[in-house]
Amino acid sequence: MALLTESLQIPGVLTVELQPFADTRGRFIETFRKEWFPQRSWENIQSNRSESRSGVLRGLHYHFNQVDYWYVLNGCIRAGLVDLRRSSPTYCCTQTIDLDAADNRGLFIPCGVAHGFLALTDVTLVYIVDNYYDGGDEHGLAWDDPDIAVAWRPTVPPLISERDAANPRFRSIAPELLPE
């Protein structure tokens, strides 16, 4: 049985405490059930695996029509989140959540919440989305935007893709290009 806890900083963001079952053979962990997230249909489910070296920063990305569910298989990340939903009481609030493979936790990220991660170690991340990839629903926000100020706290300059380095600052995104 998993224990779901809603974020106090950004409504709709959920951490999922997973229950491992171990014996002399090893361990088993149920990492995802669509029933845990009844607010979404999970009809067009897609699962992805991302491998990153320590110091890589991916994001920030956001979607209008897709939620993400993250589970770290190996290593440790710092997830960075920004509530971009204009109608949300926590509009523009940020949060960071450290996820370590040893913690047995998942992270549910709703539509309209920008998300990315800093690999604190070499990491393998599995993420499940509730819609097939659609490049038209892939939007970005500058990871280092001073107006947003996600508390990444990298110890060295992070490694970033050209695409993520080109993400716009919050001030330059027209309001109609932000989620309701």
From TrEMBL:
GO biological process: polysaccharide biosynthetic process
Transmembrane segments: none
Record GO terms (molecular function): dTDP-4-dehydrorhamnose 3,5-epimerase activity
GO cellular component, one term: cytosol
Catalytic-site annotation from UniProt: H61, Y127
Site feature: Participates in a stacking interaction with the thymidine ring of dTDP-4-oxo-6-deoxyglucose: Y133
Gene3D superfamilies: Jelly Rolls (2.60.120.10)
InterPro entries in the cross-refs: RmlC-like (IPR000888), RmlC-like_jellyroll (IPR014710), RmlC_Cupin_sf (IPR011051)
Alphabetized PANTHER family for the sequence: DTDP-6-DEOXY-D-GLUCOSE-3,5 EPIMERASE (PTHR21047), THYMIDINE DIPHOSPHO-4-KETO-RHAMNOSE 3,5-EPIMERASE (PTHR21047:SF2)
The protein's name: dTDP-4-dehydrorhamnose 3,5-epimerase
Originating gene: rfbC
